[in-house]
Design brief:
Chain lengths: 435, 368
């Protein structure tokens, strides 16, 4: 009999698993469950939809006929319970679905921000993670003149950019001393801050939103910060990160082993038989590394590329491959308004004493930062130009020295034709790698 | 979500096939119909009269409508080009390309022929070649024009176009020189996202554009045969005239003018280029065999869809990017907008003989 494979979550992890499985197994009965959307859509495109640059339909990476052609069932429902012994899940419409293999790809949920006065708010407080968040933002932008966005990461700046496009006066509140210290050094943060301010963002650092006030109708009317600043606004965006969406699992009997996310082994299997977890909700093992308690180090790779990689991995494993999952070196890129950002390297593992060489193009928002541990090139951060990430990653694998990398740096440039960042004109500063 | 207010409504409506978009399309179509078929019994077109009023021709002079049309066209390309540079000023490829396109349009496609006309010489468009300008291959043209002009057209069509096509792909012509592409990539910019991205449209395009190329080749062959085959062949001569006339009507007037430009607000900017242009068909075949390609950075695509949405040729760029597949598509005009709008810097255009091994390794491209 054909295997019944049930995938909870139709984000990039679940969909990558489904499509990869189908490519290797013609007979499996594959079902994708989602309570968010009928069709797979690209979460990363939310900001472009909000800015009217993409129609909703264009957010879907595959034509709709693909799902029938690939013989993948789609079910729109929320899973409320899981019975691993009986191999069934219960849905919010009280249906029960049986499975042979269950893949949990429930993604993450916005990290909640406890606020004084939150109970009185019925309208105007948004996150920016789901399609329903997009609906809420679209409902609100026309009645918003001023907005406050909390949280100094990528989702925050994307929401800020979208609100600004709607000509909304936007205040961006960042808890730390500069924008995104988890990814940028002080100097880089300052460059991005200048760019944001040039676009009209009111950037507030070293402060947090403490309380929210609503008007008689329950609509947000102002926020109050820890430094006792009151900012009038009709919309409050909360983007202080995401957490694995696993809370519903703690009530199931028996629940899978949970840490920050669902704990999985090197085949991405949970502690429950025939149940796997992938993507933002999974907590994977980092091989050959121990954490502070002397246990196997674990991490949640909450990023698009990892979700796709894990989805493909689990599908290969379910169709006969014998591989052990190991998170590769971190890489990412993004855009802060027009400023491109590229990063490669495991920033959490930068050793004490490592040094950064910061190259900057005077007068422009263009920089490249090479981090080395005295002998080897170990991490890279760049603003304002494009880089061939796999090449930089390869140099790190090869243990190239700082001097070697500087001589060959132009080989990793990925800018548009006629637009190469002029490396020769860049001025150099040496910094500690850890801020 | 559109911006607030009446201007927000209008900006959205006109670029998203709303009422105003259809009105604009109808207006543009009517303009072209009057331009091509609006000559009165006395040979005077209403547009001639407007041209006379604007001093774009001596009163009573017929054909002044073409000067008016050229002026409007060049103005649209120039103003649209300024807008383009303001919007994408941070991208040097777009800036350089737009400046070249505006320059070529305002000189070789407008002022040079205009001066030639004033000087009493038949106008000549140095930036157009066979098969787009079929006339430049015809015996009538070859016999009656000075040698340098004839040589430029012949060498351009036979040598320059194919050689540059192999080295740089289609883009050197379609996105840097051609007036049709010039208008699309300047004044037409707000409409570029309207192109049809479906697989069905791709299948349709492959049929129509090669049919158009075939029609061009047959017409050229018949015209050349009628002129150069020795002896008297009244049937052949008749067919030569018929083919030329129907080519002028269907391809030049109806498809490149009425359909090509008037469809901007409802079908996107490159309807003519994508489905019908014989030059694009020929360059596309050369491109497939040549060096140009779009390189995809490995594992970096987030499937957001900006590249596909902004592709005016309706290429589903995302389907290649998310499969880590560098690619060359015959229809790609190399405008570079997919690389510009990509929020992760995944795409780049290149002319490279080198093919990285990654290209052989196609990942989860779907079984069709």
């Amino acid at each position: 009999m054909a295997r019944r494979i049930l995938i909870v979550g139709n984000g990039v992890a679940g969909v990558s698993a489904a499509l990869t499985l189908r490519a290797r197994d013609d007979s499996a009965e594959i079902t994708l469950l989602s309570d968010e959307s009928d069709y797979f859509f690209s979460r990363t495109a939310l900001m472009y939809a909000l800015m009217d640059k993409l129609p909703r339909r264009a957010m879907e990476p595959y034509e709709r006929k693909v799902w029938d052609k690939q013989n993948i069932q789609r079910v729109r429902a929320r899973v409320t319970n899981l019975d691993a012994d009986a191999h069934t899940v219960t849905l919010d419409d009280n249906r029960t679905l049986a499975y042979d293999i269950l893949i949990l790809a429930t993604g993450s949920a916005p990290r909640p921000l406890p606020l004084e006065g939150d109970d009185a708010v019925r309208e105007g407080r948004v996150h920016f993670v789901t399609l329903q968040d997009l609906d809420a933002c679209e409902r609100l932008v026309h009645s918003t003149a001023r907005a406050v966005v909390v949280g100094g990461g990528l989702i925050g700046i994307e929401l800020v950019e979208s609100l600004l496009w709607h000509k909304i006066q936007t205040t961006f509140v960042v808890r730390e001393g500069w924008y995104w210290p988890a990814a940028l050094c002080r100097e880089e943060g300052a460059m991005v801050a200048d760019h944001m301010r040039a676009h009209g963002v009111t950037l507030v650092t070293d402060d947090e939103v403490r309380a929210v006030h609503a008007d008689a109708n329950g609509r947000v009317k102002s926020v109050q910060t820890k430094n006792d600043k009151t900012v009038a606004c009709e919309l409050l965006g909360v983007a202080i990160g995401v957490v694995p969406n696993v809370r519903w699992l703690s009530e199931t009997k028996p629940p899978p082993a949970l840490g920050r996310g669902i704990r999985v082994d090197e085949r991405l299997q949970t502690s429950l038989p025939d149940v796997y977890a992938i993507g933002d909700c999974a907590e994977v093992i980092v091989p050959n590394k121990l954490d502070a308690n002397g246990e196997a180090k674990r991490k949640v790779e909450s990023i698009w590329y990892a979700a796709k990689r894990q989805g493909e991995f689990v599908a290969r494993g379910l169709s006969g491959a014998h591989e052990r999952y190991a998170p590769p070196r971190f890489f990412n890129s993004a855009k802060f308004f027009e400023v491109e950002y590229t990063t490669v390297g495991d920033w959490e593992d930068i050793p004490e004493g490592a040094e950064s060489v910061l190259l900057r193009l005077p007068g422009k928002t263009v920089s490249a930062r090479l981090v080395h541990d005295g002998s080897k090139f170990i991490a890279f951060n760049a603003l304002g130009s494009r880089w061939d990430t796999p090449v930089l990653d390869q140099w790190m694998d090869e243990g190239r020295s700082l001097e070697w990398v500087r001589r060959h740096l132009h080989e990793a440039q990925f800018d548009v034709e006629f637009g190469r960042a002029p490396l020769r004109k860049m001025q150099e500063t040496v910094l500690e790698a850890r801020p | 979500m559109r911006r607030k207010g009446p201007m927000g409504w209008l900006a959205h409506d006109v670029t998203h096939r709303g009422v105003t978009a259809w009105m604009l399309t109808i207006a543009l179509a009517m303009f072209y119909v009057v331009l091509y078929w609006g000559d009165g019994p006395n040979g005077v077109n209403p547009l001639d009269k407007i041209a006379w009023l604007l001093h774009l021709g001596r009163p009573g002079q017929s054909g002044a409508k073409w000067t008016l049309y050229g002026t409007l066209y060049t103005l649209a390309v120039t103003l649209g080009g300024i807008g383009m540079i303001r919007r994408y000023g941070h991208n040097r490829y777009q800036v350089v390309r737009t400046m070249v396109v505006v320059f070529v349009q305002s000189t070789f496609a407008f002022s040079v022929p205009l001066f030639m006309k004033f000087a009493g010489h038949p106008e000549h468009y140095f930036s157009y070649f066979w098969p787009l300008k079929m006339y430049y291959f015809e015996p009538g043209f070859i016999r009656s024009n000075p040698a340098p002009l004839v040589l430029w057209s012949l060498i351009g069509s036979m040598v320059l176009v194919p050689v540059l096509g192999v080295f740089f792909g289609k883009r050197w012509y379609c996105s840097w020189v051609c007036g049709c592409g010039g208008l699309a990539n300047t004044a037409g910019e707000p409409f570029r996202a309207l192109s049809d991205k479906s697989e069905r449209a791709w299948r349709f395009e492959k049929i129509t554009i090669h049919a158009s190329l075939a029609l061009t080749l047959v017409t050229t062959a018949v015209v050349l045969a009628s002129a150069f085959v020795p002896g008297n062949h009244p049937v052949l001569d008749l067919y030569a005239v018929k083919f030329r006339e129907s080519y002028a009507l269907i391809v030049s007037a109806l498809l490149s003018g009425v359909v090509g430009v008037a469809a901007y607000p409802v079908g996107g900017t490159r309807v003519w280029c994508r489905y019908f242009c014989p030059m694009a068909a020929m360059l596309g075949l050369l491109q497939k065999a040549g060096r140009f390609r779009i390189r995809v950075k490995k594992d970096m695509c987030i499937s957001c869809g900006m590249c596909s949405n902004y592709c005016e040729m309706g290429i589903d760029v995302r389907s290649y990017a998310q499969a880590n597949e560098s690619f060359t598509r015959a229809s790609c005009v190399g405008c570079g907008m997919c690389a510009e709008v990509c929020p992760r810097g995944v795409l780049t255009l290149e002319n490279s003989r080198k093919r990285d091994p990654q290209e052989q390794l196609v990942q989860i491209r779907l079984k069709r």
